[in-house]
Amino acid sequence: MKITFIAADNTTTVVDAVEGESVMRAAVSNDVDGILGECGGAMMCATCHCYVDDEWADATGPQEDGESDLLDCAASEVRPTSRLSCQIRMRADLDGLVVHLPDSQL
Ligand code: FES
After folding, report:
1. Rounded to two decimals, what is the model's pTM?
2. Which residue has the least CA distance to atom 3 on ligand 1?
């Protein structure tokens, strides 16, 4: 399944992901600039902050417990579609997911 990452400068990167993989892991393993994932997905860093594209916000769902607290520490503006990409797990109905990247994670 595919995930499209759109950077703050509009650079677009499309990567392959497998079912159950987090969006953060798919980004990091494909060297997508703009997702750091420093804590490895343990919800301790907020360097995997992303903005889910409006078209996909319903499918990915709202922030999970604890995400909004951690997003308060994010380096970039937090928006209604902000998510920690380590908390979004790929599944069949998310094939084609589009996420936007903040201009900074640190
Ligand atoms: S990778 Fe650290 S909170 Fe997502």
Report:
1. 0.96
2. 43
Q: Is the CB of 48 under 6 A from ligand 1?
A: yes
Comparing CA positions, the residue from 86, 80, 75 lying closest to residue 17 is 86
Domains and CATH numbers, the chain: 2-100 (3.10.20.30)
What would the pLDDT profile of 56-75 be if each residue is shown by its tens digit? 999 999 999 899 999 999 99
* Cβ of residue 28 lying under 6 Å from some atom of ligand 1: no
> What distance in angstroms lies between residue 33's CA and the mean position of ligand 1's atoms?
15
For the CA of 87, the closest atom of ligand 1 is 4
